[in-house]
Amino acid sequence: MTGHKVLLIGAGGVGTIVAYGIHLAGNSELSIVVRRDFAKVNDVGYNIDSIDYGIVEGWKPENIYPSVAAAASSGTVYQYVIITTKNLPDIAKVEELAEPVITPGVTVVVLIQNGFDLCRPFFDKYPKNVVISGITYVGSHNSGGSVHQTQPDRSFFGSGRNPYIPEDLQESKVKEFLSIYSNGRNKPVYITNEREYRYKKLIYNAAMNTSCALAGVDTGRLELSGALDAVAIPAMREIIAIAKADGINLPNDCINNAIHGDDGDWFEPSMLIDVKKGNPIELEVILGNVLRVAEELNVKTPCLSLLYGLLKAVQFRLRENQGHFTLPIDRPISERFYK
Ligand SMILES: NC(=O)C1=CN([C@@H]2O[C@H](COP(=O)(O)OP(=O)(O)OC[C@H]3O[C@@H](n4cnc5c(N)ncnc54)[C@H](OP(=O)(O)O)[C@@H]3O)[C@@H](O)[C@H]2O)C=CC1
Ligand SMILES: CC(C)(CO)C(=O)C(=O)O
């Protein structure tokens, strides 16, 4: 197979569906990095049960590597590096993870992850590289090489707007990526306003994921308990206010659409699932980044800030339980004076 040299890092729920979609499109030489499941996937491939693609057994791309370093040592100059890991800058920065496979001025980075302002750290580190921002509403999970995609791959791709590169070049790369990814069965959409799409998705992720993760309940229980009205909806209004101060008027029905998207489901947003599994949460990209923008724009965010403050303690607990740090047996005494 010849074509665009594409590497995907993060072959989880989203990543395997993106990789398979690119494979079906047939315009690329596709490589993927598979960490924990490398031995199994390298041996027997993926089994995929997909609402878009049906049952697929034993699928493998052209190249499978156990690490980013191994993908780099193949000597390939990747034209596209797609990142579909969780985005956890407080633990490992994705712009550093991908460094061995990014050729300055050549590689286009595609970030398909939840959160806000994800491209900024890439522009600082790689001022000559195009970064594409991918907002996805897919529902997909990978367990040891068995992938179950329950929600169609509805995804939107736009230029991250690198200030150091002409915008028309960046737009042309977004269009090229869509030709690499579109296969007639998925529906990737070209957008010119990625920030607006990021804000729209934050309506859900910054308010529902966070409230459910903190309370330990699904979205149905959040509603029936009254916490949806008391906390999540005011938090959504704060996202609308931040977007407005940022020059973006979100549509009138954005809260209504976000809430009714779960109708009939006792739905568990990804942040709740991470807490239940004991995994770190994408707190900084889903909430921290937008709160930093709110501060720059002088927007008051009482609900979001409270959610953020308490979830920092949750993240601390999750990280301590995963052994990221250990605390001394005796609690250190603080000499701080509290007025
Ligand atoms: N799943 C979904 O339905 C949706 C997810 N999203 C967003 O998409 C992004 C991806 O989510 P999701 O697919 O669910 O996440 P998963 O946890 O399923 O997958 C992440 C993958 O990244 C891999 N990974 C992490 N670090 C590295 C590393 N250093 N080197 C190589 N591989 C690595 C993990 O490997 P390992 O198994 O070894 O840990 C894992 O396979 C997130 O930002 C999420 O919020 C958005 C919409 C829906
Ligand atoms: C709402 C959803 C499922 C959209 O894909 C999501 O982004 C999440 O749970 O984090």
UniProtKB/TrEMBL annotation:
Lineage top rank: taxon: Eukaryota
Keywords for the protein's UniProt record, in alphabetical order: NADP, Oxidoreductase
GO molecular function annotation: 2-dehydropantoate 2-reductase activity
GO biological process, one term: pantothenate biosynthetic process
GO terms under cellular component: cytoplasm
All residue ranges annotated as the Ketopantoate reductase C-terminal domain in the record: 195-315
One Pfam family, short name: ApbA_C
Residue ranges occupied by any Ketopantoate reductase N-terminal domain in the UniProt entry: 6-160
Catalytically driven reaction(s): (R)-pantoate + NADP(+) = 2-dehydropantoate + NADPH + H(+)
Gene3D superfamilies tied to this protein: N-(1-d-carboxylethyl)-l-norvaline Dehydrogenase, domain 2, NAD(P)-binding Rossmann-like Domain
UniProt entry tagged with the keyword Metal-binding: no
InterPro entries (UniProt xref): 6-PGluconate_DH-like_C_sf, 6PGD_dom2, ApbA, KPA_reductase, KPR-Related, KPR_N, NAD(P)-bd_dom_sf
EC number: 1.1.1.169
Similarity comment: Belongs to the ketopantoate reductase family.
NCBIfam families with a match to the protein in the record: apbA_panE
Protein's job: Catalyzes the NADPH-dependent reduction of ketopantoate into pantoic acid.
This protein's name: 2-dehydropantoate 2-reductase
Species for this entry: Torulaspora globosa
